[in-house]
Amino acid sequence: MWNIIMVEDEEPILNLHKRLLEKDGLFKVIATFTSPIEAAKELAKIRADAIFLDIEMPKLNGIELAIKLVEEGIDVPIIFSTAYTKYAVDAFRVQALDYVLKPMTPNTVLQLDERLAKYYGRQKQHAIAKLEVRLRGDAATRMNGRAIKWRTKVTEELFYYLLLNEGAVVSKYRILDDIWPNLDERKALANLYNTIYRLRQMFNELEVPIQIERINDGYEMKTNNAVMLQMPNEPDSFLLESKGYLWAYKIS
After folding, report:
1. Helix, strand, or coil here: 145?
2. CATH topology of domain 131-250
3. pLDDT-based confidence at 88, cuts 50/70/90?
C-alpha cells in the first residue's frame, strides 16, 4: 500500500479521487490540501511515497509548487493531475513521475500502482536483468555488454558509493561530506535528492529491481541479485582507480 498526499483545490474532485485511489487498498491518502500555499508549508513534515498535485490552482500552481519542493530537497516522487494535456512538457521538466488526466479511472489507479512499484524497485521480475559492474582498475558498468549511459557524472558516482555500502544505511550527511564537500548543506541536499531520483528512474527504465530506500536520515541500496561483479584485468588495481573519487581511497 502506498501512502500518498493529495493537493487539489477542487474539493469534489479531491474527494472523488481519494475514494477511487483507496477503493482497492492500493493507496492510502494520509493528507489532503485544498490550498497549495498551506501544502507548501506542511509537505516537508509528512512522510509519503508520492505527492499528487493538481496543476491549475490559484496563487501557486502545481508546477510552481513542484519546483519549490525540488528546491527544498523533498525526496518524494510527484504525480500531476490535470484536465489539460498542454502541461505535460512542463510537468516532466520538474521530475514528475507521472502525469494523469482528470478524472482518474480505475485503470489509471492500476497504472499508478505499477509506476510506483517500478520507481521503488518493487516490480515483479520473471527473468532478472543484471548490471555487470567492475569496481577495480578501469571501473565500468554494463548491461548485456553495453556501457551504461549515465545522466550525469555524479549519478554514476553515487551509484558506486551506495553499491559499496550495500546492506548498510548511510547517513545522508555522510554522503554530502563525501560527494559534495564544498557545497552548502541546502544545495548539497537538493543535489542528493535529485541524483537519487535520477538513479531510481534509470533502474526503472533498465527494468532492474535495484532499490534505494530512504530510512530515517539515510539511504540503503538493495541490489536484489541484479548486480554481477566482474574481476579486474589486473588484480592489484585500486578500487574505482579510473574514476579518481577521493572517498574511494579511504576504503581501498
Report:
1. coil
2. Arc Repressor Mutant, subunit A (1.10.10)
3. low
